[in-house]
Amino acid sequence: MRYPKLLAAGLCLTASAVSAQTNVPGDPYAGDPVGIVADPCPAHSKPADGQGWQMWNLHMLTRDHGQLCRYRAQNAALTEPARVVFMGDSITDNWIGADPSLFTHGLVDRGISGQTTPQMLLRFRQDVIALRPKAVHIMAGTNDIAGNTGAATVETVQGNIETMAELAHAHGIKVILASIPPAAAFPWSPEKHPAPQILAFNRWLRGYATAHGYTYVDYHAALTTAEGGMKPGLASDGVHPTPAGYAVMRPLALAAVAKTLGGGR
Q1: Where are the alpha helices (DSSP H) in 95-147?
Q2: Beta strands of the chain (E only): which ranges?
Q3: CA 107: distance to chain centroid?
Q4: For 190-249, what is each residue's pLDDT tens digit?
Q5: How far apart are CA 92 and CA 94, in angstroms?
């Protein structure tokens, strides 16, 4: 979930009449292609230290905000038709590692750690619509509440989810809306006290799903304590599920898929 904090000095963006694209002093990715090109996703080795990750993060925010490069090759390499695409943040991103057998028989994981709803919306066409699934499972909102990409009104965040659902519906893709899982605190954003906002957002999600005939899957109720945090043993840091947490979520996800598509898995 966490994006490294960036020093103000590192955010000095320069633009000139000669070079209109975003340039960051010291950017090791400055030679990457810009503009409309056939291959916008050059390969890079993973950063080896904190400064390297900081520059990668800044590069992502300025050059590939939606992180369309993350799944570009995997999307092209899919050989089995997608039945359900799981769109989300790190809670979805980590799910396949904790429970790989879930993502078989056309269930496809397309989570990206740290993402907020505007980033998911940017890649929704590539990572969902273009795969032509029968349904999409959208679990989003944790990082918007944490403020990973800045400030937004609740109406803006809800609108991003509405737009994803409307795009899916327009393309004949059924919609599963997942609750935001519980969290009493965010380790990477300690000033936040998210439990009340999560509860309120989930009430809206349930109502929106009901009003539009979408499936709502309530992971929050299965994972939460009375105080709105994760039950002991179900999360590694109070936010991200452990394998035991995903084991609680798995039957709920499969039930939602069966309800949405009919029949078995």
Answers
A1: 95-98, 117-127, 142-146
A2: 84-88, 107-111, 135-139, 174-178, 215-217
A3: 16
A4: 999 999 999 999 999 999 999 999 999 999 999 999 999 999 999 999 999 999 999 999
A5: 5
